[in-house]
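Predict structure. Chain length: 433.
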Amino acid sequence: MTYQEAIEFLFPLHRFGMKMSLENITALCSYLGNPERRLGTVVHIAGTNGKGSTAAFIASICQEAGLKTGLYTSPHVEHFAERIRINGQMIAEDIVADLTAGLKHKVQEQGATFFETITAMAFRYFAEQALDVAVIEVGMGGRLDATNVVLPAYCLITPIDYDHQEWLGDTIEKIAAEKAGIIKSGAKTIVARQRLEAMEVIVAAAKGKKSPVTIAPVVAHSQMATSTLGELAVHLKTPTRDYFGLRTPLWGMYQVENLRLATLCAEAMNLTERAIREGIRNVLRNTGHRARLEVLSRSPLVMLDVSHNPNGMEHTVATLLRHREQFNRLLVIFGAMQDKDISGMLASLLRVASKFYLVSPQIERAAKVETLAALLAETPCSYQACESVAQAIQAAKEDMQEKDALLVTGSFYVSGEAAHALNMNRVSEKVVV
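Prediction complete.
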């Protein structure tokens, strides 16, 4: 099987949708010899927003400490192999092909989903590579997520908000209960700042599992330092150390919560202050983490962002408002999945956007441009319907004036198509947009 043949087999598995059950992943892992039990020290991360960034911070810190570190995240921005990395290196195409070929029959027999299949593949790959640490991000929920067959030493829960209600429940308490399903007996639980109703559920779950729980904002205190656009600086005081002037290129203000959670986990792992500082500073270089208010270009200012629910978008907008003097108009290329709270996301963006370029990424779940336009029709903000993300970029290019900024946001899929169209991998001083 070639890599292309593997991708052509894997991606159509999306037709099986999402299955809230551990039956398939258990069968796949058993077929592979239970690789999920041989992943080294496992850090398992659930939550609504910030899972990917927290995972990237921890993986980067572990790499700086000299540990062989696997990182499993989802979804990808541009390339499938972004999801499965060891010490920042994406899984090789020939290994993807071999793993897919070895699982194909069992996947067909089980009717396994895309996520179940690639999770089993990641575990097999990591087990074969004799990792020191595996950082595993939950796909959706926690209790019945395909990743929830691992044996974690650390269970981290990032801020919980409304998302995937049709699967996880229609109240914060129900959603929190699903997320808290990753907590295991004997593991240490570390929890980010939460709504009170979510925190109560999580703490009760940890106590029920006899898992010692640390509430991050209670034990570690942060203070924003002077920051420039594209860099976040923060002072952090934990029970054991004072970190003056931690700096990271993940510059959204919401990253303070993720950074604090990752730091407390790293301290629990007995990692050094140097590893923590350097891991936080070098997180993009070490992990390839992308599209979290990623600055693709400074002249003109072009940013790529994957915020895809109201809470995430609210935090993105708050960061942009903090640096409002850095640009004149903000032009926004926006697309979203139809099952998301699109009105909530647009409400936040309307606080800062001057014009929208509306797109529907090339995936069945995408909201139609007409739907987005209807939501903006009665607002004072101007908008333009576009046939593709590439066309939206061209339209924005024609409209942009000196000191205007461009934000691409609303979905991983929109960011992925934009990154491909822009052919950009990392920040530069100038790019033709």
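Summary: The chain has a mean pLDDT of 94.
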